[in-house]
Amino acid sequence: MDSRLAADPVARHILEILSTLEKAAGVRAHYRILDPPPLTSTDLSTLQTVARVLGDWIGLRNAMFDVTVIEHNEAPRLVRIDPDHEEFAMELPAAALATADTALAALTRQVARAYLITSNIGGSSVDPSRTAGSLADVTAIFLGMGKLILNAPAAGAMIHPRATASLPEDKPLSPEYLAFTHRLVSAMRGLDWNQHTSGMNTQALGYLRKWDPYRDTVFSQALRNVLTASASHRPLMDAVEDNHLALARFDQLQRVFQATVLLPLQQEVENYHRMCREGVERLNAREQDTYDPCLLYLNQLRRRMDLQRYADMLQVQQDHVVNRLRVLSAGLSDLQARDLVHPEKARDQMSSTHCPFDGTAINIQEMSHDTRVKCPTCGYAFLATPGIPQISALRPAAPVGDEGAGLAEEDATEKRTELFSGTRAESAAPVKSETKPSPKSNKAATILAWGIALLPLSWLPMLGYLVTMIMQGKDSPLTPQLGQLGIAGSLLGLFLVLLGLIGITRKWAAKRGSTAGSPPAAPALQEK
User: Fold this and answer.
1) Half-sphere exposure for 293 (CA within 13 Å, toward CB)
2) Alpha-carbon gap, residue 60 to 139, rounded angstroms
3) Which residues contact 523 (CB under 8 A, 6 or more apart)?
4) Integer Cα distance of 165 and 23 in angstroms
5) Burial state string for 128-166 with b = 16 or more CB within 10 A and e = fewer than 16
6) What is the 3-state secondary structure (H, E, C) of 211-254?
7) What is the distance between the alpha carbons of residues 56 and 63, in angstroms, rounded to a whole number?
8) In angstroms, rounded to a whole number, what is the distance separating the alpha carbons of residues 381 and 144?
9) Ramachandran sector of residue 54 (left: φ over 0; alpha: ψ -120 to 50; beta: rest)
């Protein structure tokens, strides 16, 4: 079956109405279709006679119809005069009586409404207005009067239906869906093509032919057989199998991701916390008391060397953590761009955290910013971030030392701050010790070169002008102006030379002072 028809709300709405009618009046409905009766006149007496004939056809043998003509553009109305008898006042607009086909179609719809009101199908006797529109069209075709409707189809538009079977009531079916309903009723009752198309005009046959592509799927007689109709639907079985295969791959990927990424990353984070805890323990450990100044000096020097070595190890660890944060934040951004991140799902779980060592739950719901918390069980102090996790800026204090070391540490801090603030780098390569010279370092030399070049170049215009005038044997009236231009260019060149020399001198002096004040490099220590 075509997927578009399967998802068509109007087609499903028509099926719901037919199911309701079949359950309520299927045993009383005809299994043949009424051919259009001859209608040679549209006077009131003839219309009343045709209405009685249509009523007898559908089982309203005691129904009486009082037909009147109303204004040209008004909607047709049907009112039950006597609740105890089948007497109806039928008001038809003059526009519906223009031709015999339109008159038959109008009478057919009103007689079908009278059938619904009398039979109380879908609560129509309580609220007769529910029978207007699509319900009357489907009922008329269901009772075997589809040819009368299709020979003069209403130019209606079907709105999107709601879940109730009798809705919507206010709009008639379009000609295409009238033909669809007629073919559905004919296939439902096992009627062949000749039986349900004889007596139709060319326009009605054209609407019916539009549904020929669904002859073997929707209008198939095999659907009337209990054995063939209950056969398994192959497209649904294939779709289920394809989904099972995709879900199996998803489950496999999820388990692999859990084993190869999440668990190792969790163990790595635990090791990071363990190193931080060991660093705090080393910092709080006390040396053995001694009154020997030399031994005290050696102990304190060894302690500071050990602490510095461990601080360097933690600095390397911090670079690893920053790289992990950079990779994870980049992956999270890609997932969020594909609508695979749902922050609202994590709000309840972000109101508490746990200790990285013993798993003690710690409530952080009332915190509004990053706060240092302490585990009440093991005493480990760490930083807790409430709410939805955000990568914030890391601002470590600069170590006390010489100016050159402070500048290097400030530069490294700026790089870490960029990473922690969510800035993604081009690659994840570790930071090397040597730095490339910036373009600003050659600025003084560039100014000096420009000044030297400008000194002779400023006199070239006057020199070229004089040579040209002398070769042509003419006077040179522009010589004073060009001379002033040369003097101005020479002054500008001298000024640039002076700036360049000053810059080079300052750079040389700063480099010499930095080299003289830097301590000798210590050999690298490795933690076993």
Assistant:
1) 0
2) 14
3) none
4) 12
5) bebbbbbbbbbbbbbbbbbbbbbbbbbebebeebeeebb
6) CHHHCCCCCCHHHHCHHHHCCCCHHHHHHHHHHHHHHHHHHHHH
7) 8
8) 84
9) alpha
Q: What global pTM score does this model have?
A: 0.52
- The residues with which 79 forms a beta bridge, in sequence order, are 89
Both tokens of 303, joined, read: 């302690």
CA dist 369 and 383 (Å) reads: 10
User: How far apart are the C-alpha atoms of 187 and 196, rounded to whole Å?
Assistant: 10
Q: Name 202's bridge partners.
A: none
Task: Name the more confident of 302 and 519.
Answer: 302
Confidence tier at 292 by pLDDT (50, 70, 90): confident
15 three-state secondary structure: helix
Q: How do 77-82 and 381-384 pair as beta strands?
A: unpaired
**Which has more pLDDT, 167 or 444?**
444
Which helix (H) or strand (E) segment is 70 a member of?
A: strand 64-70
Output helix, strand, coil percentages for the chain, rounded to the nearest 5: 60, 5, 35
Location of structure tokens 């028509």 = 14
